[in-house]
From TrEMBL:
Lineage, opening ranks: Bacteria, Pseudomonadati, Pseudomonadota, Alphaproteobacteria, Sphingomonadales
Transmembrane segments: 12-29, 49-70, 82-98, 142-163, 183-203, 250-276, 288-307, 319-336, 342-365, 377-404, 410-430
InterPro entries listed in its UniProt record: MFS, MFS_dom, MFS_trans_sf
Keywords: Membrane, Transmembrane, Transmembrane helix, Transport
Localization: Membrane
Topology term for the membrane: Multi-pass membrane protein
Protein name in UniProt: MFS transporter
SUPFAM superfamilies membership: MFS general substrate transporter
Keyword NAD: no
């Protein structure tokens, strides 16, 4: 009756977070293979960024809605688990549909379905930490989720290349997806289904009666018109307060989006000299992109362990500016690299920037947010991540067609420039803070 949930064992925290492994294996496979799927069905270079919009659009619209709906769901089977089971089933079906897609239209439809269901699945997974752990264990809970996010993304990005090494064909036949990529999506479906079912069966959610027994008063969700108006006004004021973070995030995440979209054609045509998607060298280059993505995720996971100490010693803004500068070299280098080994070096530099992008801006935002407004700050940060992806998705295709003559390598040079601008904005803020 002390108003706190009871502490749980480390084993339960691991079990609570293990489901993220399946989600991130799926994300790793998708991010390393999506452009490959689209190009296999005949999509042009200038169309790729637009076709990738399913992820950011779904993230902006679906997660807040499902998160709010699951807040208000109370059933005998739990609060979050019904949403997780339903979303997981749809995502598994969508992954299977991608594996057997007969056409570009079908693949696009299945990928939209996958992104919607994955975002619907992510929101309840995140909420489980706050639902089932006491406040003093929230840090451990989210940190453990981060561990599984990194491990899953690393494994997922490696799957297509591992299947190719095992002898599965990785060459695109006209109007189809390589066998290795099809099997990778089926592997993602299997891992995701196991993760979701495992979480649903093993995680215990508290009921309203349980919360009452612990002395916890659930927040009233009703908001009157005056409160809604005040919240909207505060949100606009917050936009001004966070303007430097918004600008910094815009250029950093625009750069990362360009990497996700164009790494496959850039690497296949550049370092592997592929002349078409049917060229066997294209398959080898696309597989190597998976290795690159696994590398930057792995480096990000390792670098994240030392970031807190660097922040304390040198300051968050200075460290973030340096990390973004390393990333700018990595993005531009990937556009020019002529060997697979050099591409891995570039991926490592991008991983340093990525680790800082996932932590430093949130630290900066938490220092701006007033007491009790952390939730609003996180909401704004999600907007700052999604909007640059939407802008790139809607606009970069025309730039590729008109100014780059369909040559994708220039997109990663642009990514390098964007990341450099993000570093300059961050460093400028650090100097102002010092003065």
């Amino acid at each position: 009756m002390n108003g706190e949930l009871p502490p749980v064992t480390q084993g339960r925290i691991v079990g609570l977070s293990a489901g993220y492994l399946g989600l991130q294996i799926t994300f790793g496979i998708e991010s390393a293979s999506l452009s490959r799927v689209y190009q296999g069905f005949g999509a042009g270079i200038e169309d790729l960024a637009l076709l990738w919009l399913a992820g950011p659009v779904s993230g902006l619209l679906v997660q807040p809605v499902i998160g709010r709906l699951s807040d208000r769901t109370w059933t005998r089977f739990g609060r979050r688990r019904p949403w997780m089971l339903g979303s997981g089933a749809i995502a598994t079906a969508a992954l299977t549909g991608i594996a057997f897609a007969p056409s570009l239209v079908w693949a696009i439809a299945m990928i939209w379905l996958l992104e919607i269901s994955m975002n619907a699945l992510n929101a309840p997974y995140r909420a489980l930490v706050g639902d089932t752990l006491p406040e003093q264990q929230h840090g451990r809970g989210f940190a453990m989720q981060t561990v599984f996010i990194g491990v899953g993304a690393f494994l997922g990005a490696m799957v297509p290349n591992a299947l190719s090494i095992a002898g599965m064909p990785n060459v695109v036949a006209e109007g189809s997806t390589p066998v290795s990529v099809r099997l990778a999506f089926l592997a993602a479906a299997t891992c995701l289904a196991i993760s979701v079912v495992g979480t649903v069966l093993k995680v215990r959610e508290y009921s309203k009666e349980d919360y009452a027994r612990f002395g916890i008063r659930l927040t009233d969700q009703q908001v009157d018109e005056r409160e809604a108006g005040r919240t909207s006004a505060d949100w606009l004021v917050n936009l001004l307060a966070y303007r430097r973070i918004a600008a910094m995030q815009f250029f950093a995440w625009a750069a990362l989006y360009l990497l996700w979209v164009y790494a496959t054609p850039v690497v296949a045509q550049g370092a592997f000299a592929a002349i078409s998607v049917e060229d066997p060298r294209y398959g080898d280059g696309a597989d190597w992109v998976g290795v690159m993505f696994a590398t930057y995720n792995g480096v990000a996971g390792l670098f994240a362990f030392i970031l807190p100490r660097l922040f304390e010693k040198f300051g968050v803004s200075r460290v973030h500016a340096a990390a973004l500068l390393a990333g700018s070299v990595g993005f531009a280098g990937a556009a020019l690299a002529g060997t697979p080994l050099l591409l891995l070096v570039c991926a490592g530099l991008i991983g340093i920037a990525y680790a800082s992008m996932l932590s430093a801006p949130f630290v900066m935002a938490s220092r701006i947010a007033r007491q009790g407004e952390a939730g609003g700050a996180i909401g704004l940060m999600n907007v700052f991540i999604v909007v640059p992806q939407l802008v790139m998705g809607l606009g970069i295709g025309a730039l590729v067609r008109i100014f780059l003559s369909g040559n994708p390598s220039g997109t990663l040079l642009i990514a390098g420039i964007f990341c450099f601008l993000a570093a300059v904005i961050t460093a400028t803020g650090a100097r102002r803070a010092a003065n």
